[in-house]
Write a structure and sequence with these properties.
Layout: E1 14-19, H1 25-32, E2 44-45, E3 48-49, H2 55-60, E4 62-65, E5 74-75, H3 76-80, H4 89-98, H5 102-106, E6 115-116, H6 125-137, E7 143-147, H7 155-169, E8 173-177, E9 189-194, E10 197-202, H8 204-210, H9 212-220
Parallel strand pairs: 1-8, 1-9, 4-7, 7-8
Antiparallel strand pairs: 2-3, 5-6, 9-10
């Protein structure tokens, strides 16, 4: 449960939400998407309270990528066009290139019409996650929500995912929930949740000094420089 949570997400910047399991990180994303309504307080997007916005209009502004995002049986094109059926092939290639998947897809003789199976058979876990980002980007939603996008990835795929997130962040507002701090260390703003409350807010460098919890998480994950702040 969240308590007295107040923060601002700057337009055009990346804001990360971190903390221990059960701190309420994913709940925040669910509230932004109006899967739940806050019992007290309010949430505003682009200056308007989200309760005053039709859910369909609100979600048209949002691209969402969940942990272990699915790739559905069908073609690469089918997967990309789920939320934007009128987008042309050039736009499909553009978003695939932005997440460093275009070369991988064009290796297949069928290109965009290459068939993938249930759960993305033929694509690695990291490629499925990057495909999900491409699908979220294709409609040009100004707000991108990422829920633990690197949680189940190995080191190589995690680095590729970092690159995809940096590319996706250009020109849009990003709100990302992360367990691995390396994923979000370069974010313009990091919010540390502890037991449903905002424990600290700042950049990675600021939080290493000001937040015991953030410093503990960083040291536990062996982030470079974290041990310098004992």
């Amino acid at each position: 449960m969240l308590h007295d949570v107040t923060f601002t997400v700057p337009t055009g910047a990346t804001t990360a939400i971190v903390g221990l399991s059960g701190a309420g990180k994913s709940t925040l994303l669910a509230l932004v998407e109006r899967f739940y309504e806050p019992s007290v307080g309010s949430i505003s997007v682009e200056g308007s309270q989200i309760r005053s916005i039709l859910r369909s209009d609100l979600r048209a502004k949002i691209g969402y990528v969940e942990q272990d995002a699915p790739v559905l049986a069908g073609t690469i094109r089918d997967n990309l066009l789920l939320g934007a059926p009128d987008v042309d092939a050039d736009r499909c290639r553009e978003v695939l290139a932005s997440v460093n998947l275009l070369a991988r897809i064009e290796q297949h003789p069928d290109g965009l019409d290459a068939v993938v199976g249930d759960d993305g058979v033929g694509l690695s876990g990291g490629e499925r996650q990057r495909m999900a980002i491409a699908r979220a980007l294709i409609g040009d939603a100004p707000l991108l929500l990422l829920d633990e996008p690197t949680a189940s990835l190995d080191g190589r795929n995690e680095r590729a995912m970092h690159d995809a997130i940096r590319s996706a962040a250009v020109g849009r507002t990003v709100l990302i929930v992360a367990h691995r701090l390396a994923t979000v260390a370069n974010s313009e703003q990091i919010i540390v949740l502890d037991a449903g409350r905002v424990a600290a807010t700042g950049t990675h460098t600021e939080l290493l000094t000001s937040s015991d919890l953030y410093r503990e998480l960083a040291q536990h994950q062996l982030l470079p420089g974290a041990s310098d702040h004992d």
